[in-house]
Amino acid sequence: MTYTGRSRLADFTRGLGALVVFLFLLVGCPVAMYVMGGSPIPDRIPSWEEVSAILMRQDTDQSVFLATIFLIGWGAWCLFIVTVCAETMNYLAGRSRPVLPRPVRPLQQLVRDLIATATLTFSAAASLATSASAATHTHVATDPHVAAAPEAGSHEQSSPRQDTPPREPTASEWTPLLADEPTAQPKPDHHAWRTHIVKRGETLWGLARHTYGSGDLYPNIFKNSRQIDQPDGIPALTDPAVIRPGQRIRLPRPSAPDGPSSRSQAASPGAGAHATPSDQGKKSDARTPTPLRPTSEQSTVSPVPSPVVAPPADHSASPAPSTPNDQDDSDSPLAISLPSGSRIGLGLAAALSVAVAATRLHRRRRRPLKIDTDSSEHIPEPPIAAPVLGARKAHLDTYVVREAPVPSDPELVREDLLTPEPDQLVVGTRDGQAVSVPLAGLSLGLSGDGAHAAARAITTELLAKAHRYRAEILIPQADAQALFPGDEITDLSTALDGLIIKPSLREAINHLEVELLHRARVLDMTDQPDVAALRAEDPAEPLPTVLLVASIPADDARVDALATLGCRFSIGVLALGAWTSGTSVELASDATVTDTRGPNAARFTETRLFHLTTGDATDMLRTIRTATGTETDATSLRTSADHVTEPEPRAAVTIVPPPRPPEGAPRPPVRLEVLGDVRLHTADGPIKTGLRQRARDLLAYLALHPDGVTRDRASADLWPDDSPGSIVSTFNTAVTNIRSVLRNATGLSSPMYVVHSAGRYRIDPDVVDIDLWQLNAALADAQQATDDTARIRALTLVADRCAGEFASGLTQQWAEVHREYLRRTVGDALANLARLLQEADPERALMVLEQAITCDPYSEPLYRHVMRLQARLDRPDAVRRTYGLLAARLDELDAEPDGETRKLVSSATRALNRN
């Protein structure tokens, strides 16, 4: 008997013993007490005189004592029955928290343990029976049309053919991916329903025709999908004629395509699952086995679990039915392909988007004010790597597709404050759907050419989400260098609490065992069943999910034990190499699963995992580190020797003198606003319809180039992902749309609005007035002013015209570059205006500084400027309120005011108290 067989036999023995004890307590105890003491229910109710006489006389025959013992026994048995009923109701209601008073909870725990152990009798018996059956059969046919496997010892067995279907593990080989979950192999359910994410161009009629074989049956899908909870930002399904990209609906799971009843099922909606018309005409081929597919809802696909990532829409039409082997998953809307060859998910893209936002806010926080009137040149900051910016744009584009407001950097950081601990991780896609794994209790091994790239993507995503005690990566030094060569991983470990690098695997395991003991003590003190329940009860307890990423030798008993207890204690294992204790996945060089073994093999069958190149991972780790606020000049400017960071795209990063209208010229009939949302106005009000998004992008871009720009340069910056053959048509369509909309709105057909001259396109200043040009004119006047009076007048105009950030709804990199530049320039201008006003009019100077803080609420030098001025005006309470406001802002970044600010507050408060 194998070790697994002995283990199953031991489980069966323990379960049988627990079942005997449970039946004795449930039936044997009351029978024994009834035989020895009779019924606990008296024939009649005794009078008070009889009770007094019995209690007052001497108990020589021990009858009172025995009656008391029997009464206590019957009471304990009744309490046992109540506890069993309470546990049954808890199980049926899906509750895990104790509902009985604390003195009864030990009995409740005993009942739980007895029932859980007793169930081993049935599961182990089924496993032993299946093991015995599997031992007597050399080949298992999963389909009547599948060819038999080669016999043992044959050449085909040592070199498996590509068309041989993967063998399902027997029960004796079955060990769970989540060690605390049941080990029973899921049974096929041809009447189950699956969750489908609506793609652009799909209709309920078309989906019904594809699944049922008849579009007339679409009400069945609508009826079963109305009660599904939709993701944040996605409307509920209320009208069968209107479905939106990103909505979730339920479709019947297709039955076996080559089964004998495929055609009859397609004609009957009551079957619950149907073959497609293309499948009905196919003939079986013994040499082409039907691929094994997951059948349970848990082992299929799930949407991206991220609060800042809304389910995206697919821009393509609904694909024609195809076999899984023919399905190309490279264009999945849940996957992002980077130019370097990396392929990441929207979960990592969202986390990097937050990291970019935090990096920018930290830089704004530390950037010193530039109030030198002789120069306006800004200090360039280290550029953010192109792969990170590409991932950020892909994330922000999901908002554009859903026609939702694009969040600003502060909004992204505030949303991140509400993000819970990750309990699921999307690791890849299959057939355009996300494939996810649970983190708590994860027991997964990655091997093959693409193993390190896939492990790199998983680790990087968790590191991006690890701040605020959400997750923790534990990795030995050798494996850390194998996944992330260079110094970035070491630098990140000193800045991020969620990354722990140990010198060896032994020390990593020792650290994990100490953490497990700590968590066991915490659970025991709080009387919680697992870490997940403890988090729900006390969210402030810092117990993040810990993932061990390491190359683990075969049959490592310590790691096996940790993986077994992982589900309860929120611990997971990601093995770099073959993994016999859980699910093992073999990957090709492009991270496509070529072979999978273990309890959840079906979950990864025909899946393509996300993967990262070394260079992209290095850039992402650098951004994750700068997002913690620990950036220094030396580390931020350092790049890998074999990877050069791509420079920022071209953008207007200087003040371009705008055209000035002549004196007495009439007011232009059109006004373009690009400070805030991009909007067009006429004398009759705002233009709300007709203007396409690409036309808005072009207007904002041309507003940055009053002297004009060539079509090629504008197209390259605006639409870098478009094919060269379509750029000319796209640009011309946008210009045509601008002219048509403005002519219809103004009634003026003669102006061109967008003028083409000498190969350059520009906005006609005679008919279009732009708020950005007015702001730039005021900034230019302030630079050219020769005395403080003229400078104050020009800077006052700057304060009046800074209505908002540049093109707040645009996600292109050129817009973000100028947005940051304009924020710096306006902040410096307002600080300079306050410096010029503080001697003669300190109250007005305070108002200007408050306006500057509104424009840049994370600039710590601005707050210090305000506090110095408040101290001069003898306002200690105002100084403390300003410091409190700064501390609250920086708390969003997981940061605190620096020593200079704290020293300023202390000295100002002491000086004012002495006075």
Automatic annotation (TrEMBL):
The UniProt annotation puts the region (Disordered) at 147-173, 229-338, 632-668
Biased composition, class Low complexity, residue ranges: 294-303, 311-324
Q: What's this protein's name?
A: LysM domain-containing protein
Position of the signal peptide: none
Task: List, as start-end ranges, the regions of compositional bias called Basic and acidic residues.
Answer: 640-649
- State the InterPro entries in the record: AfsR-DnrI-RedD_regulator, BTAD, LysM, LysM_dom_sf, OmpR/PhoB-type_DNA-bd, Sig_transdc_resp-reg_C-effctor, TPR-like_helical_dom_sf, WH-like_DNA-bd_sf
Q: Which residues span the membrane?
A: 12-36, 64-93
Q: Name one GO molecular function term.
A: DNA binding
Going by the UniProt record, its keywords in alphabetical order are:
DNA-binding, Membrane, Transmembrane, Transmembrane helix
Limits of the LysM domain:
194-251
The family database entries (CDD domains) matched by this protein are listed as: LysM
